[in-house]
Amino acid sequence: MSQILIIHNALDQHENETIHSDSVLKTFLEIRVKHPQARIFKGHQPCAETDVTPARDDKQAIARLLESNDDFSIVTYPGEFASAVTWIATKLLGQAVQSLVKMPKLNNGESSGSSNNNLSNPENKQRIKERVPYILGGPKAIPDLFANPVRYFKDGIEVEELLLCVCENPVKLSNFKEGDTPIQEISGKSITAYGLNQSIIGPDNIFKWGDTFTDPPLVAKQNNSVNGQTLLSPNSTRSENSDIYFQYPNLIKCLDSSTVDDFEDFNINETIIIEGANFGIADLTITGSVQIDNVAETIAISSTQTAAGYADYRKINITAMLITDPVNGQLDLAGLYDIESIEYSGGIYTVKLLNPTDTNTNFANLTQVATTNMSANLTANTENIYLDGAYTVSGIDRANKQLSLVSPSAVNSDWDKLADLTGQQTKTARIKLRGGQNNYVGWFTTDSPLAKGLLLNFRAGNGIYRGSDSRTVTIEAEYQQVVNGTPTGTIFKKSISLVGRGGNRDAIGGSMWIDFTFTGAVRFRARRTNDNGDHDDLVDETKFYLAYAYHKLEKLVYDNRVLVRARTVATLNATSQDSRQLNCIAESLVYTYRDGIKSSERVTSRNIADLAIDVALHPKIGRRTIDEIDFERIYAAVDELTAYFGSNKMAEFNYTLDSTNTSFEEILRMMGFVTGCHDRRVNRKTYFDFESPESLPILLFNHRNKQPQTEVRTYNLTVENKYDGIELTYVDSESGWIEKTLKLPNDAINNPKKVEGTGIIYSQQAHIIGWREWNKLKFSRIIVKFGAYAESDYAFVGDNILTTDDVRLGDCTSGEIRAYSGLEITVSQPFNFDQSKQYLIHLQMKSGFIDVIKVSQGIDDYHFLLERPPVENFVIDGQVKTVYSVTTDQKLNAQRFIVSKKSAQQIFENEITAYNFDERFYRNDKDIINNLI
Q1: CA-to-CA distance for 99 and 314, rounded, in angstroms?
Q2: 745 in any annotated domain
Q3: Residue 856, Cβ neighbours under 10 Å: how many?
Q4: Which residues touch 836 (CB under 8 Å, ≥6 apart)?
Q5: Residue 929 has what DSSP assignment?
Q6: Shared domain check, 458 and 428
Q7: Which of 39, 285, 294, 578 could form a disulfide with 53 if both were Cys (CB 3.0 to 4.6 A apart)?
Q8: pLDDT digits 0-9 by tens, 337-381
Q9: Is residue 770 included in any domain, yes or no?
Q10: Which domain holds residue 253?
Q11: In the structure, what pLDDT confidence band is assigned to residue 546 with cuts at 50, 70 and 90?
Q12: Which of 656, 690, 724 is the last residue of a domain?
């Protein structure tokens, strides 16, 4: 029961009253009729965060209110809308409730519930022979099935248990949901997550909600051949039609094709029971009080009517006879019984029955003489042609609309009388055809080498009842060991009973748990053993729902798996979920190495420095050692980019590695792309280099270190491939972890370049990276490609370089330093300075640094004067000397390019492809700082 605080004035919460209610939703709807603007809040502190007012189409929220026993507050607000608005508001919410809880209208006052309250299949999938996920950062994690789902019934309600795998690395788990619904709002839901080296039946865990798991999970193999077959009751009616007639010597025939469809429900060699095939003298109706003697197998009918020729009737058809037995409760003894004899004395007809339990097994459940009222028909007069009986099907001929029997006259000699009729056939009549006692579903074989048991599930989807009275369905299963494909040994049996509720359409289920005395393959079958009759108001259809061969998982501790156990009970709330995909937020737990020192404990982290180091040191991913990681430069790059962009989110990478084809180098490249960095490995040291307008060129290429006649320059007047924008795809964590597409520069683009934002989960991050990509497409106008010598080994994709235009020199020159004295240098290439212009010289120093100095004409064209000394000494001896290039100050960036591709040609020779540098590439980089996002 819930305590509900009703606040009548939102401005003064002292104007309130407290009530108790068994139905929160009903109470809320009643108040909303009077106050259509009312809202409901969880707890007694109304605020935006606790507002749980359901929208018209929010079936999940309505279901939660239907089942919740928590405390709530309802704020009515003063004032009234017009009566029409009141009606509309109530009507809309009422329609939403009605669409959720489908309750068929019954005229007899019976209670009714959903007949569909079974769990749909979980949306988590198995990924057999795929890479075990590795969590980087804090992405939304969708656990994989570690074993097949198992379903069973407990107390008539369906229960599902899952064993799932999140990842292989240590993580912190939170925010478990089923679809978009938090598991805390799903009644009957239990979740426990186990970290590395934690027992999946032990008390230690990294997340827990609901019940504790103490038993090992089942490893089950489902038999897909069991898929909801109906368990027919003994002697169940398979056809009842008015177009059936009989033909000598052994044919059951019909006129309509629909009746032939019923014929095909029978199998060859199966028993078929004919009822109502009585041609001649009419049946005799008899009613009155009756005494049933279960030992003598007699029915004594007290009746004042005179039954002429009563001794000539061979059967009695009891249409209604209910008995309350002191031991077995209410029994329905209706059925068509064979008569051994009928005697009359003093107004009492004593009918001696022949094998009554063959007709109705409930007769055997009588424990004493019983008295009740009865309505029955005496039938099968000896003067008639009476063809009722149990026969064997020999064939079904659809084309001729007939079913043939095996020697029916051997069972019932009246079949021989058909030979004397016109055309050797009867007239059409309403005939009932029933199945026999052999109503098994199966055999089914499950070959599971480790199986030690069977789990058989049965389900009555609409309940088990007749009117306001409950009914029972009894099911028997047989099973047998299979060795090398051959059934072997004893056939074992086990039974189960499903008990319904009077007038209740809620599904009833039952599970049969069978423990083997053997291990391995098994065959099994099931059948229904009781018959509740053919009454119009009887509901007891029962299906063979699911079947598993199983054994209990023996390995309970894993050092390389984070596992989750989940249990879902089929409550209304659980079955109303739009999505059954279990998901959570997984944050990687890593050691941090800031300042080069390993932290004492693992911490949650999403920045690329910690994550790159984690995968680099992984023995199967990066396979690097501590000596191969430049900790200082990795963390320096992260600090630089967070300060530059103005957001720590720009340093994050949130992704689940799940592909066996993703290499360590590709992982670093993905991290670099979404953070504006480039991964580097120089002198066996791995680190990141942040790309920004302030990035300095690292190498100078001119005709001295380029291969002769290899340089090709391409000038583009339009964007590559005529792209009119970019389309960046990413996952937006701020909008419910949905995949989004960012179109730049606007949504009207028609020919965008597709870009995958792998690892991006923030709109800010997508905005910055997307604009960088578009600006580079838009302002890249020159592509240069050339072969280069040994120095090019130090150039990597994303590096800034200087390269002279050796196709058209113009007012610039390049070469190498031959000698120097003070500020005067001697160069390899002559050049005459234009005195009206200011020139700069770019010097490639030995350390890799490029020094830029103002320069002027010396004593001749081979001598230049520097404005200041260089930062390092020149190299003028040996094979590789200091190289230079001279440009005017107006063309300071004309020789500046960014490497887009490098491919090895020969030893110490590479082909370099680069595009022109332009500061406009980065013109949107400050949009976070400038509050433009």
Answers
A1: 54
A2: no
A3: 14
A4: none
A5: T
A6: no
A7: 39
A8: 999 999 988 888 899 999 998 888 888 899 999 998 888 888 888
A9: no
A10: 237-278+387-435
A11: very high
A12: 690
